[in-house]
Amino acid sequence: MRRSVTGTRITVAALFLLPCLVLLGALVVYPIGYSVARSFYDPSGDGFVGVDNYQALFTDDGIRTALKNNVIWVVFAPTVATALGLVFAVLTERVRWGTAFKLVVFMPMAISMLAAGIIFRLVYDQDPDKGVANAVWVGVHDTFAQASAFPKAHPGRDSPLTAEGGGYVTRATVHTGETVSLPLVGVAPDRMPGDAKKAAAAEADPAAITGTTWQDFTRGKGVGTPGAPDPTELGYAGMRIEAVKDGKVVASTTAADDGTFTLPAAADGARLRLPASNFAEPYNGLDWLGPSLVTPAIIGSYIWMWAGFAMVLIAAGLAGVPRELLEAARVDGANEWQVFRRVTVPLLAPVLAVVTVTLMINVLKVFDLVFIIAPGSSQDDANVLALELYRKGFSENQPGIASAIAVFLLLLVVPVMWFNVRRLRREVRR
């Protein structure tokens, strides 16, 4: 009876391997072979179309967009995730709570792609009250450019104001000694400035122009006097008022907490303007899931998940780096940056290559995050090959083209896998 190099009978070995070979054939070999064959047929599966389905890979707009996005994914996602993993692995060696930090960074790996997609769909919500990304972005923006408190304010019926250039101006000119009323409506009570006080009628000043700007609305039918401040009405605290004469601003002021304001005699004969800046809509942040940002946003969610994976593998490789080499470099006068760049990174090059290539294989097949995070309005812009395969096969009923995409993906993945296996074998020989 023939025996293998390990002394095991070949027949016995074959019997033990048979279940695995059957499963491998059923789950891997047969689907690949069927996909290759199916890629040469029309949607019905009866007509042979040759390479027409493969030509569609480079002529169909949806597939070309998916291919372009896959290139972006392959270039940026593995590179950034590996770089962050390297930084985390090196830094956590220098802190006492490094293990806890590694646990927190690696934790997203325990979350399924489906759950991560739902999480980041909420993170990227356009509404700053719901989406964390825009809540932070709007908070930073409003720190340097405060939004107006009166985005919905507008003149009421029989108002002395008329619309002009996004703001409002008085219909008539004003003169020294006059008291001007600038009533507006339309601001929700909860949007009024917190420092607003009850509106007060301005006192006349013979040497200046005075007036009041306020929310001319009192709750309750038939309650209140239009065009005059009522006891429950609030002044537009902080409203900017400009005096415009011959197209030039000759004076300006800001309303007090009770809405009153005073302009100098230089405003005599001018028209008063409430500039458009008073009514600017609040800044709502970026459209993270819009056509221009959807792919970078989804790549960000992928990096959040896989940076921990890269960190763990790189940290394992870093543990095997001879410490005497690092110390020798420091003794020779190298600073920490030079030690990191010229000693640590070259020694970790094999590990970094394995991590990068592994992530490249992973991103070539990315589907879940794109399908879940990208809304229908921008899913075409975020499209990738795996998602396009799903759409062609199940939504558009074109299994021939879907099979061609599957074969094309396999051809893209195989060289990368071969490179990774070859490198791993080389490392084992060492």
Write up what this structure looks like.
With 430 residues, the chain is α+β, with helices and mostly antiparallel strands. It has two domains: 243 residues, MetI-like (MetI-like fold, Orthogonal Bundle), CATH 1.10.3720; 119 residues, no CATH class. Helix content is 50%, strand content 10%. It has 13 helices and eight strands. The strands form two sheets. It has a five-stranded antiparallel β-sheet, with no helix packed on it. A three-stranded mixed β-sheet has the order 3-4-7, with no helix packed on it. A hairpin with a 2-residue loop joins β1 and β2. α3 packs antiparallel against α10 and α12 runs antiparallel to α13. The longest helix has 32 residues. The chain is elongated, with a radius of gyration of 34 Å. It starts with 9 loop residues before the first helix and ends with a helix. The model has no long low-confidence stretch (mean pLDDT 87).
Strand and helix map with partners:
Layout: H1 10-38, H2 52-59, H3 61-92, H4 98-106, H5 113-123, H6 132-144, E1 161-164, E2 167-170, E3 179-184, E4 209-215, E5 240-245, E6 248-254, E7 260-263, E8 271-274, H7 294-319, H8 323-331, H9 336-347, H10 349-364, H11 368-373, H12 385-395, H13 399-429
Parallel strand pairs: 3-4
Antiparallel strand pairs: 1-2, 2-8, 4-7, 5-6, 5-8
Provide a brief overview of the structure:
The chain is of the alpha+beta class and 430 residues long.
Overall domain count: 2
How many distinct beta strands? 8
CATH fold topology of the largest domain: MetI-like fold
Please give the share of residues in helix.
Answer: 40-55%
Number of helices: 13
Structural class: alpha+beta
N-end to C-end Cα span = 36 Å
CATH superfamily of the largest domain: MetI-like
Question: Per CATH, which architecture of the largest domain?
Answer: Orthogonal Bundle
Give the spatial strand order of the biggest sheet.
1-2-8-5-6
- Give the radius of gyration: 34 Å
The backbone outline, from C-alpha atoms, is: elongated
Largest sheet: 5 strands, antiparallel
> Which residues form runs of ≥5 with pLDDT under 50?
none
Residue share in β-strands:
5-15%
Query: Tell me, what is the CATH class of the largest domain?
Result: Mainly Alpha
Average pLDDT rating: 87
Which sequence of SSEs, written as H and E, runs from N to C?
HHHHHHEEEEEEEEHHHHHHH
